[in-house]
Amino acid sequence: MFQALHETVEYIKRKTNNFQPEIGIVLGTGLGALVTEIEVEYNLMYSNIPNFPISTLEFHSGKLIFGTLKGKKVIAMQGRLHYYEGYSMQQITFPIRAMKALGIHCLFVSNAAGSLNPNFKKGDLMIINDHINLQPESPLRGHNDADMGPRFPDMSQPYSRELIDSAMAIAEKEGINCHQGVYVSVTGPNLETKAEYKYLRIIGGDAVGMSTVPEVIVAKHSGIPVFAISVLTDEGFTEVLVPVSLEEILETAREAEPKMTKILSQLISTL
């Protein structure tokens, strides 16, 4: 991995005139509009970056965006990678390793998720304060390079309490309906059955999705503080489970996205 990472980072530096980002951003399904808030200096297609996995989803644009947001230099992934696309956990999290090598010292992650909590409705936001990992393997499986992080990284506080508190204060000030909760990460790509939704709620989940946790694990392994937020696009707690389509999920994400963008941009301005 070290050689591949070196090649990737050197290519990015050449193409961006040694751009040095302070903050990394991962934009989830239907949540790419934050890019419009960025004063873009460079953008690179994943397909042109050596060793970089390519997003196979038609609704993920697959670009690395470099620029300034609220006075901070940022690098944003417009389109993330998922285990269900056929990639290994190491491939999925390779972009986080590259961001770290480029110099980020904080990571912001967004996703679209299904609500498991009857108090969290479709269209609400949920700031993630903990997670349950039901993905089939860890991105840290295999040889550990001590230069990248410890063999057994601590996960007692995977999400920055300071950033969570600041984001909740912003949401309250802006009148945005925003919760805190536990995110459950599953493989996908199928959505859950009624019994599975019930199980995930019983074990402590407030929302369920197919991403985020691998990136968070690698960020923590790398010593990077993390803030993560979900847009709740459907409800898995109803007595009669209503079928949901991708189109509905994307539409709900688009409608809720301005609220998420407001929280993220204001939060970044405080750093």
From TrEMBL:
An example GO CC term for this entry is: cytoplasm
Identify the EC number(s).
Answer: 2.4.2.1
Its pathway is: Purine metabolism; purine nucleoside salvage
Q: Where is the Nucleoside phosphorylase domain?
A: 23-268
Q: Which biological process annotations from GO are given for this protein?
A: nucleoside metabolic process
- In its keyword annotation, does this UniProt entry include DNA damage? no
Report a single Gene Ontology molecular function.
Answer: purine-nucleoside phosphorylase activity
The UniProt keyword set, sorted, is:
Glycosyltransferase, Phosphoprotein, Transferase
Parts forming coiled coils: none
List the PANTHER family.
METHYLTHIOADENOSINE/PURINE NUCLEOSIDE PHOSPHORYLASE, PURINE NUCLEOSIDE PHOSPHORYLASE-RELATED
Family, according to the entry, reads as follows: Belongs to the PNP/MTAP phosphorylase family.
Give the record's subunit note.
Answer: Homotrimer.
Tell me the function of this protein.
The purine nucleoside phosphorylases catalyze the phosphorolytic breakdown of the N-glycosidic bond in the beta-(deoxy)ribonucleoside molecules, with the formation of the corresponding free purine bases and pentose-1-phosphate.
State the protein's name.
Purine nucleoside phosphorylase
Q: Which organism is it from?
A: Pedobacter heparinus (strain ATCC 13125 / DSM 2366 / CIP 104194 / JCM 7457 / NBRC 12017 / NCIMB 9290 / NRRL B-14731 / HIM 762-3)
